[in-house]
Design goal:
Strand content: under 5%
Order of helices and strands: HHHHHHHHHH
Distance between the termini: 6 Å
Shape: globular
Structural class: mainly alpha
Radius of gyration: 16 Å
Length: 198
């Protein structure tokens, strides 16, 4: 979906327009999987634009659609979005929501990476610096090839780069971002930043 490419390029307004158009098409086609993917993308765009009310609304719809589809990948990704929104808002339920993500058994690289990054964010909030660094290492290793990353990873790392990190996690974030930026300067391939949905 072109909206994913725009989001990946940090073109949030264009990504939102494309995602809304795609969502309308999927609704007309009565394709709930495509609609759920669009709602997830809209939630990520809203998180990355600091519009947390919209992010929450889209994430809840995402969760409902993936629950109906009985899709564990979608269930985990929607719960991760809700946890990330809570972390961004400094909401008291953030720890509980991150814990709910841990209870979903799924061994796919992209949600595994997003889960480890979300765990690192919680550790940062709680000043558990060794845990934050360990979660960053686990996130980086999720795909085997440490240069690869999920569709929301660059945006989370950009947010992380603006937070206070004590210990090695900070340099891990900087190094990873430099690798992603070098790849973005070239022609990114689909295997560098895979997109599962639509």
């Amino acid at each position: 979906m072109l909206g994913h490419a725009d989001h990946r390029a940090f073109e949030m307004d264009r990504a939102r327009v494309r995602a809304l158009a795609a969502r309308a098409a999927f609704r007309e086609l009565q394709n709930p999987r495509g609609e759920a993917a669009c709602e997830r993308l809209l939630s990520m765009i809203a998180i990355d634009s600091d519009d947390f009310a919209a992010a929450q609304a889209h994430a809840i719809i995402t969760q409902k659609l993936f629950d109906k589809l009985q899709d564990p990948w979608g269930e985990l990704e929607s719960k991760l979005l809700l946890a990330q929104i809570a972390l961004a808002r400094d909401a008291p339920e953030a720890g509980r929501l991150v814990g709910e993500c841990e209870r979903i058994v799924l061994d796919e690289a992209e949600p595994r990476q997003h889960r480890h990054l979300t765990n690192a964010w919680l550790a940062q909030k709680q000043a558990r610096w060794p845990d934050a660094a360990a979660e960053m290492d686990r996130a980086r290793a999720a795909f085997g090839d440490k240069a690869r990353c999920g569709d929301h990873t660059p945006h989370l790392l950009t947010r992380f780069s603006k937070l206070v990190w004590i210990g090695p996690a900070s340099s891990k974030i900087d190094t990873w971002m430099q690798i992603i930026e070098r790849q973005s300067a070239g022609a990114p391939t689909s295997d560098q930043m895979p997109i599962r949905a639509v």
